[in-house]
Design goal:
The chain has about 350 residues and is an alpha/beta fold. It is built from twelve helices and 14 strands. The strands form three sheets. Strands 2-1-3-4-5-13-12-11 form an eight-stranded mixed beta sheet, sandwiched between helices. The protein starts with a helix and ends with a helix. Bound molecules: alpha-L-rhamnopyranose. The site of alpha-L-rhamnopyranose has 13 residues, from helix 9.
């Protein structure tokens, strides 16, 4: 815990620094044009035949404010580098829908493609085809497997996220009782990695009185996340805590617990957007939660894509890049592949949520 607090403190200092520099947290800019509103909608290439380089990003699905912020950060990096940003997200969070979009981007001859994978393996043939066509492929947020990408941009250490969420909920429920997880899709690489670490943390004998009764999947769709939360409450009347490691899930659970008057009876924590969770943190339905800056995840990915296209990095361990206002970053190992790490998660509670809800 001490170590984590230390890391949190460093994160606070970094975030204060970033906001003081007025970098990715400024609310100016053209948010409207950076949000895909419907399936397949993208910003058309500007048509300047001079051939501005095209940098695409595909998020998991539409209708997720977290994804819009991530894409906004990517667009900011790409535009400050002087290129064209193409932002895409399918209606549904499926691999199939992303494959269709990858094929379109191959035909459009984009220079780079950053993907938030809806499946670790299913996108491999399409992404290999893209790389054979000369497109620099990277993943961010939710990784694709090592063969399908040159590098992954990771928001934070999965072990730290998973262990911290268990420690948090256990503290909230007073050390014993039933807990459940409300996740995104069952194929999401990022959520699955965090859940694995939650389960490892729970193996510690100190949690012998804590029982994980179910992992439910709301698919990052608001209505499904609401109904999955309601089903958890119905099936497990003694449930004492919910961890939702997804911004869509935690906001849905916050609403359900509020509407049912369960504040203090069923505790809630997880990974949430301050703008969506402020009311539940202020009311006490969710005493605290964690996240990183999604604008920065996208922004870092934009700079990583640029470095891959310029050839200043190839994605191998030890490669270094300067990621705009985020400064120096290094490529490090990640299982069979490689990654670039943004930083540590940040804790949001009643003392700081008002400040952050306006930022993201
Ligand atoms: C949701 C998405 C995203 C994840 C966040 C925490 O918005 O699943 O991929 O990183 O939650």
């Amino acid at each position: 815990m001490k170590k984590f607090l230390g890391i949190c403190l460093t994160a606070v200092m970094l975030m204060v620094l970033v906001s003081a520099c007025g970098s990715n947290n400024d609310k100016g800019g053209n948010e409207a044009s950076s949000s895909p509103k419907a399936s397949g909608e993208s910003k058309a290439p500007s048509g300047d035949a001079g051939g501005k380089k095209k940098f695409a990003i595909i998020f998991k699905n539409t209708g997720n404010p977290y994804g819009e912020k991530e894409m906004e950060g990517y667009k900011k990096a790409i535009e400050e580098l002087g290129y064209e940003a193409i932002l895409k997200a399918p209606d549904q969070p499926t691999a199939e829908a992303q494959i269709t979009m990858i094929d379109e981007l191959i035909s459009q001859k984009v220079d780079a493609l950053a993907i938030v994978g809806n499946d670790p393996d299913a996108l491999q043939p399409a992404l290999e085809k893209a790389m054979k066509a000369g497109i620099k492929v990277l993943s961010l947020d939710s990784a694709v497997n090592a063969e399908s990408r040159l590098v992954h941009v990771n928001q934070a250490d999965p072990e730290l996220i998973g262990r911290t969420l268990i420690q948090g909920v256990v503290e909230m429920i007073g050390g014993s009782g039933e807990i459940a997880i409300l996740s995104a899709t069952s194929q999401a690489t990022n959520q699955n990695a965090w859940i694995e670490w939650m389960k490892k943390e729970l193996e510690d004998p100190k949690y012998k009185d804590v029982k994980l009764v179910k992992v439910a999947y709301g698919d990052d769709l608001r209505d499904k996340s609401v109904s999955e939360t309601e089903a958890l409450l119905k099936s497990y009347p003694n449930l004492k805590g919910i961890i939702a490691p997804t911004t869509v899930g935690i906001a849905a659970a916050g609403k359900v617990l509020t509407d049912k008057g369960l504040k203090g009876k069923v505790q809630l924590t997880g990974l949430g957007l301050p703008s969506e969770m402020a009311e539940y943190i202020e009311s006490g339905v969710c005493p605290w939660m964690y996240l990183w800056n999604p604008l920065d995840v996208g922004y870092l990915s934009g700079y990583a894509a640029d470095a891959l296209v310029k050839g200043t990095i190839t994605g191998k361990v030890g490669d270094k890049l300067t990621a705009g206002t985020l400064g120096e970053k290094e490529v490090i190992a990640d299982g069979e592949g490689t990654q670039i790490m943004l930083g540590a998660p940040f804790k949001f509670d009643a003392s700081n949520i008002a400040e952050w809800k306006a930022v993201y």
